[in-house]
Protein backbone atom coordinates (compact mmCIF):
# COMPACT_ATOMS: atom_id res chain seq x y z
CA UNK A 1 0.00 0.00 0.00
CA UNK A 2 1.10 3.55 -0.70
CA UNK A 3 2.55 5.42 2.24
CA UNK A 4 0.83 8.60 3.31
CA UNK A 5 1.33 11.37 5.81
CA UNK A 6 -1.93 11.62 7.71
CA UNK A 7 -0.78 14.68 9.63
CA UNK A 8 -0.06 16.73 6.48
CA UNK A 9 -3.35 15.76 4.93
CA UNK A 10 -5.25 16.58 8.09
CA UNK A 11 -3.69 20.04 8.17
CA UNK A 12 -4.56 20.72 4.53
CA UNK A 13 -8.04 19.33 4.98
CA UNK A 14 -8.68 21.36 8.11
CA UNK A 15 -7.97 24.56 6.20
CA UNK A 16 -10.40 23.43 3.48
CA UNK A 17 -12.88 22.07 6.03
CA UNK A 18 -15.04 25.16 6.30
CA UNK A 19 -15.72 25.16 2.56
CA UNK A 20 -16.60 21.45 2.37
CA UNK A 21 -20.20 20.47 1.74
CA UNK A 22 -21.90 18.17 4.20
CA UNK A 23 -22.42 14.49 3.36
CA UNK A 24 -24.50 14.02 6.53
CA UNK A 25 -26.48 16.59 8.48
CA UNK A 26 -28.34 15.77 11.71
CA UNK A 27 -30.69 17.96 13.71
CA UNK A 28 -32.15 16.96 17.06
CA UNK A 29 -31.53 13.29 16.26
CA UNK A 30 -32.74 10.73 18.78
CA UNK A 31 -32.80 6.92 18.74
CA UNK A 32 -34.33 4.58 21.27
CA UNK A 33 -33.25 0.96 21.80
CA UNK A 34 -35.46 -1.13 24.04
CA UNK A 35 -36.84 1.45 26.47
CA UNK A 36 -33.62 3.45 26.57
CA UNK A 37 -32.94 6.68 24.65
CA UNK A 38 -29.47 5.94 23.25
CA UNK A 39 -29.06 9.07 21.08
CA UNK A 40 -30.20 12.25 22.82
CA UNK A 41 -30.98 15.09 20.42
CA UNK A 42 -27.78 15.20 18.34
CA UNK A 43 -26.84 18.05 15.98
CA UNK A 44 -23.80 17.47 13.78
CA UNK A 45 -22.46 17.38 10.24
CA UNK A 46 -20.08 15.03 8.43
CA UNK A 47 -18.18 16.91 5.71
CA UNK A 48 -17.99 15.35 2.24
CA UNK A 49 -14.71 13.88 1.02
CA UNK A 50 -13.12 13.86 4.49
CA UNK A 51 -12.44 11.32 7.22
CA UNK A 52 -14.59 11.95 10.27
CA UNK A 53 -13.72 9.98 13.38
CA UNK A 54 -16.55 9.01 15.71
CA UNK A 55 -14.90 8.54 19.06
CA UNK A 56 -16.16 7.77 22.50
CA UNK A 57 -16.18 5.11 25.20
CA UNK A 58 -17.77 1.71 24.75
CA UNK A 59 -21.57 1.93 24.95
CA UNK A 60 -21.81 5.68 24.23
CA UNK A 61 -23.90 5.07 21.09
CA UNK A 62 -21.41 4.99 18.17
CA UNK A 63 -22.87 1.87 16.52
CA UNK A 64 -26.40 3.15 17.03
CA UNK A 65 -25.48 6.44 15.35
CA UNK A 66 -23.91 4.60 12.41
CA UNK A 67 -26.98 2.35 12.06
CA UNK A 68 -29.13 5.47 12.06
CA UNK A 69 -27.07 7.03 9.25
CA UNK A 70 -27.18 3.90 7.07
CA UNK A 71 -30.92 3.58 7.74
CA UNK A 72 -31.06 0.30 9.67
CA UNK A 73 -32.00 1.70 13.09
CA UNK A 74 -35.66 1.75 14.20
CA UNK A 75 -37.28 4.30 16.54
CA UNK A 76 -35.43 7.37 15.26
CA UNK A 77 -36.71 10.97 15.46
CA UNK A 78 -35.30 14.30 14.26
CA UNK A 79 -33.87 15.27 10.88
CA UNK A 80 -31.14 13.26 9.20
CA UNK A 81 -30.02 14.03 5.64
CA UNK A 82 -27.52 11.67 4.02
CA UNK A 83 -26.01 12.54 0.61
CA UNK A 84 -28.89 14.93 0.04
CA UNK A 85 -31.69 12.47 0.90
CA UNK A 86 -33.46 11.42 4.09
CA UNK A 87 -31.59 8.58 5.85
CA UNK A 88 -33.00 5.19 4.89
CA UNK A 89 -34.11 6.33 1.41
CA UNK A 90 -33.81 3.24 -0.88
CA UNK A 91 -31.89 5.37 -3.44
CA UNK A 92 -29.03 5.59 -0.90
CA UNK A 93 -28.42 1.83 -0.75
CA UNK A 94 -25.91 1.67 -3.58
CA UNK A 95 -24.23 4.93 -2.52
CA UNK A 96 -23.29 3.86 1.03
CA UNK A 97 -20.87 1.15 2.15
CA UNK A 98 -21.31 -0.08 5.72
CA UNK A 99 -18.89 -2.42 7.47
CA UNK A 100 -20.13 -3.69 10.82
CA UNK A 101 -17.92 -4.95 13.65
CA UNK A 102 -18.72 -8.58 12.74
CA UNK A 103 -17.26 -9.48 9.31
CA UNK A 104 -20.06 -10.53 6.92
CA UNK A 105 -18.34 -12.93 4.52
CA UNK A 106 -18.94 -16.54 3.44
CA UNK A 107 -16.38 -18.71 5.21
CA UNK A 108 -16.68 -21.55 2.68
CA UNK A 109 -15.76 -19.29 -0.26
CA UNK A 110 -12.33 -17.91 -1.11
CA UNK A 111 -11.62 -14.20 -0.85
CA UNK A 112 -12.03 -13.80 -4.63
CA UNK A 113 -15.19 -15.94 -4.71
CA UNK A 114 -16.72 -13.79 -1.96
CA UNK A 115 -16.01 -10.66 -3.98
CA UNK A 116 -17.18 -12.25 -7.26
CA UNK A 117 -20.45 -13.15 -5.55
CA UNK A 118 -21.13 -9.63 -4.24
CA UNK A 119 -19.93 -8.07 -7.53
CA UNK A 120 -22.47 -10.22 -9.38
CA UNK A 121 -25.23 -8.73 -7.19
CA UNK A 122 -24.00 -5.17 -7.79
CA UNK A 123 -23.17 -5.53 -11.48
CA UNK A 124 -25.25 -8.41 -12.84
CA UNK A 125 -25.19 -9.82 -16.37
CA UNK A 126 -22.64 -10.76 -19.04
CA UNK A 127 -22.33 -7.17 -20.21
CA UNK A 128 -20.69 -6.21 -16.89
CA UNK A 129 -18.21 -9.11 -16.85
CA UNK A 130 -15.20 -6.90 -17.47
CA UNK A 131 -16.32 -4.24 -14.93
CA UNK A 132 -16.87 -6.95 -12.31
CA UNK A 133 -13.38 -8.33 -12.82
CA UNK A 134 -11.85 -4.83 -12.60
CA UNK A 135 -13.85 -3.98 -9.45
CA UNK A 136 -12.89 -7.26 -7.72
CA UNK A 137 -9.19 -6.89 -8.60
CA UNK A 138 -9.16 -3.31 -7.36
CA UNK A 139 -10.94 -4.17 -4.08
CA UNK A 140 -8.50 -7.04 -3.37
CA UNK A 141 -5.59 -4.70 -4.08
CA UNK A 142 -7.13 -1.91 -1.93
CA UNK A 143 -7.18 -4.07 1.18
CA UNK A 144 -3.82 -5.72 0.46
CA UNK A 145 -5.17 -9.28 0.19
CA UNK A 146 -3.73 -10.20 -3.24
CA UNK A 147 -1.58 -12.90 -1.60
CA UNK A 148 -4.70 -14.46 -0.03
CA UNK A 149 -7.15 -14.11 -2.93
CA UNK A 150 -7.34 -17.91 -3.27
CA UNK A 151 -7.66 -18.65 0.48
CA UNK A 152 -10.94 -19.70 2.07
CA UNK A 153 -12.34 -16.81 4.14
CA UNK A 154 -12.90 -19.23 7.04
CA UNK A 155 -9.16 -19.91 7.20
CA UNK A 156 -8.16 -16.23 7.45
CA UNK A 157 -7.26 -14.36 10.63
CA UNK A 158 -9.86 -12.04 12.21
CA UNK A 159 -8.13 -8.97 10.79
CA UNK A 160 -7.94 -10.49 7.30
CA UNK A 161 -11.63 -11.42 7.38
CA UNK A 162 -12.58 -7.85 8.35
CA UNK A 163 -10.53 -6.66 5.39
CA UNK A 164 -12.57 -8.95 3.10
CA UNK A 165 -15.70 -7.26 4.49
CA UNK A 166 -14.16 -3.88 3.76
CA UNK A 167 -13.28 -5.02 0.21
CA UNK A 168 -16.94 -6.02 -0.33
CA UNK A 169 -18.03 -2.54 0.79
CA UNK A 170 -15.52 -0.94 -1.63
CA UNK A 171 -16.79 -2.89 -4.66
CA UNK A 172 -19.50 -0.40 -5.57
CA UNK A 173 -17.22 2.67 -5.09
CA UNK A 174 -19.51 4.07 -2.35
CA UNK A 175 -19.69 7.84 -1.87
CA UNK A 176 -20.06 7.35 1.89
CA UNK A 177 -18.20 4.62 3.75
CA UNK A 178 -19.34 3.92 7.31
CA UNK A 179 -16.84 1.75 9.21
CA UNK A 180 -17.58 0.46 12.69
CA UNK A 181 -14.29 0.01 14.58
CA UNK A 182 -12.40 -1.29 11.50
CA UNK A 183 -9.02 -1.47 13.24
CA UNK A 184 -10.01 -3.44 16.34
CA UNK A 185 -7.59 -6.33 16.93
CA UNK A 186 -5.18 -5.30 14.16
CA UNK A 187 -1.44 -5.06 14.70
CA UNK A 188 0.15 -1.58 14.37
CA UNK A 189 1.40 -2.18 10.81
CA UNK A 190 -2.03 -3.24 9.54
CA UNK A 191 -3.66 -0.35 11.39
CA UNK A 192 -1.30 2.09 9.70
CA UNK A 193 -1.92 0.48 6.29
CA UNK A 194 -5.68 0.71 6.74
CA UNK A 195 -5.47 4.38 7.71
CA UNK A 196 -3.33 4.99 4.63
CA UNK A 197 -6.07 3.35 2.56
CA UNK A 198 -8.75 5.54 4.20
CA UNK A 199 -6.75 8.65 3.30
CA UNK A 200 -6.27 7.46 -0.27
CA UNK A 201 -10.01 6.83 -0.61
CA UNK A 202 -10.78 10.37 0.57
CA UNK A 203 -8.04 12.06 -1.46
CA UNK A 204 -8.23 10.08 -4.72
CA UNK A 205 -11.86 8.92 -4.92
CA UNK A 206 -13.50 11.75 -2.95
CA UNK A 207 -15.06 9.19 -0.58
CA UNK A 208 -16.56 10.46 2.68
CA UNK A 209 -15.54 8.21 5.56
CA UNK A 210 -17.13 7.95 8.99
CA UNK A 211 -14.90 5.73 11.13
CA UNK A 212 -15.66 4.78 14.72
CA UNK A 213 -13.07 3.91 17.32
CA UNK A 214 -12.68 3.96 21.06
CA UNK A 215 -8.91 4.22 20.72
CA UNK A 216 -8.14 7.89 21.13
CA UNK A 217 -4.78 7.84 19.31
CA UNK A 218 -6.71 7.10 16.09
CA UNK A 219 -8.32 10.54 16.51
CA UNK A 220 -5.13 12.19 15.34
CA UNK A 221 -5.45 10.43 11.96
CA UNK A 222 -8.87 11.99 11.17
CA UNK A 223 -9.65 15.27 9.43
CA UNK A 224 -12.56 15.93 11.80
CA UNK A 225 -13.89 14.39 14.97
CA UNK A 226 -17.21 13.80 16.61
CA UNK A 227 -16.51 13.11 20.27
CA UNK A 228 -19.39 11.23 21.87
CA UNK A 229 -20.33 10.45 25.42
CA UNK A 230 -23.51 8.94 26.84
CA UNK A 231 -25.56 9.49 23.69
CA UNK A 232 -24.49 13.09 23.20
CA UNK A 233 -21.95 14.89 21.02
CA UNK A 234 -19.42 16.41 23.37
CA UNK A 235 -17.46 18.20 20.64
CA UNK A 236 -17.23 18.43 16.85
CA UNK A 237 -14.04 19.86 15.37
CA UNK A 238 -10.62 19.13 13.85
CA UNK A 239 -8.10 17.35 16.12
CA UNK A 240 -5.89 20.43 15.98
CA UNK A 241 -8.69 22.81 17.02
CA UNK A 242 -9.74 20.49 19.86
CA UNK A 243 -6.21 20.39 21.23
CA UNK A 244 -5.79 24.16 20.89
CA UNK A 245 -9.18 25.06 22.41
CA UNK A 246 -8.61 22.82 25.42
CA UNK A 247 -4.92 23.70 25.68
CA UNK A 248 -3.86 20.04 25.64
CA UNK A 249 -1.13 18.06 23.89
CA UNK A 250 -3.39 15.23 22.69
CA UNK A 251 -7.02 14.71 21.65
CA UNK A 252 -7.34 12.20 24.49
CA UNK A 253 -6.49 14.91 27.05
CA UNK A 254 -8.91 17.29 25.31
CA UNK A 255 -11.62 14.62 25.53
CA UNK A 256 -10.99 14.09 29.27
CA UNK A 257 -11.04 17.85 29.79
CA UNK A 258 -14.42 18.07 28.02
CA UNK A 259 -15.78 15.13 30.04
CA UNK A 260 -14.74 16.81 33.31
CA UNK A 261 -16.36 20.09 32.21
CA UNK A 262 -19.58 18.25 31.23
CA UNK A 263 -19.63 16.44 34.61
CA UNK A 264 -19.19 19.75 36.46
CA UNK A 265 -22.03 21.33 34.44
CA UNK A 266 -24.29 18.32 35.12
CA UNK A 267 -23.53 18.46 38.88
CA UNK A 268 -24.25 22.23 38.95
CA UNK A 269 -27.53 21.73 37.06
CA UNK A 270 -28.54 18.94 39.49
CA UNK A 271 -27.72 21.16 42.50
CA UNK A 272 -29.69 24.07 40.97
CA UNK A 273 -32.67 21.76 40.32
CA UNK A 274 -32.58 20.52 43.93
CA UNK A 275 -32.37 24.15 45.11
CA UNK A 276 -35.42 25.09 43.01
CA UNK A 277 -37.37 22.13 44.37
CA UNK A 278 -36.58 23.21 47.95
CA UNK A 279 -37.69 26.84 47.38
CA UNK A 280 -40.90 25.90 45.55
CA UNK A 281 -41.97 23.36 48.20
CA UNK A 282 -45.11 24.31 50.11
CA UNK A 283 -44.27 25.45 53.67
CA UNK A 284 -45.24 22.80 56.18
CA UNK A 285 -48.22 23.69 58.39
N1 LIG B 1 -30.50 -4.27 20.85
C1 LIG B 1 -30.41 -3.44 21.87
N2 LIG B 1 -31.41 -3.28 22.76
C2 LIG B 1 -31.33 -2.43 23.80
N3 LIG B 1 -30.25 -1.66 24.05
C3 LIG B 1 -29.21 -1.80 23.22
C4 LIG B 1 -29.21 -2.68 22.09
N4 LIG B 1 -28.04 -2.56 21.47
C5 LIG B 1 -27.32 -1.66 22.15
N5 LIG B 1 -28.02 -1.20 23.19
C6 LIG B 1 -27.56 -0.20 24.18
O1 LIG B 1 -27.36 1.03 23.50
C7 LIG B 1 -26.24 1.71 24.04
C8 LIG B 1 -25.33 2.13 22.91
O2 LIG B 1 -24.83 0.96 22.25
P1 LIG B 1 -23.87 1.07 20.98
O3 LIG B 1 -23.62 -0.32 20.51
O4 LIG B 1 -24.46 2.03 20.02
O5 LIG B 1 -22.55 1.69 21.65
P2 LIG B 1 -21.06 1.80 21.08
O6 LIG B 1 -20.57 3.14 21.47
O7 LIG B 1 -21.05 1.45 19.64
O8 LIG B 1 -20.31 0.68 21.91
P3 LIG B 1 -18.99 -0.20 21.51
O9 LIG B 1 -17.85 0.76 21.38
O10 LIG B 1 -18.84 -1.11 22.68
O11 LIG B 1 -19.33 -0.93 20.23
C9 LIG B 1 -25.57 0.77 25.02
O12 LIG B 1 -25.89 1.19 26.33
C10 LIG B 1 -26.19 -0.57 24.74
O13 LIG B 1 -26.33 -1.32 25.92
UniProtKB/TrEMBL annotation:
One of its GO terms (molecular function) is ATP binding. It holds the Pfam family ABC_tran. PROSITE patterns: ABC_TRANSPORTER_1, ABC_TRANSPORTER_2. It comes from the Bacteria. The keyword Secreted does not apply. Keywords: ATP-binding, Nucleotide-binding. This is ABC transporter ATP-binding protein.
Amino acid sequence: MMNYSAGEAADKASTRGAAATAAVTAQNLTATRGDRQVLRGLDFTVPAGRITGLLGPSGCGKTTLMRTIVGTQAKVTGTLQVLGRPAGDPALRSRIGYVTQAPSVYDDLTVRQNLDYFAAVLLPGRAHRHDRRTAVDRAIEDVDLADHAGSLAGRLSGGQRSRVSLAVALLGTPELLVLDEPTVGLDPVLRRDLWNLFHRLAAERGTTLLVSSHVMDEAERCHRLLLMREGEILAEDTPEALRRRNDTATVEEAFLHLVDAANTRAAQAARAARGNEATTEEPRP
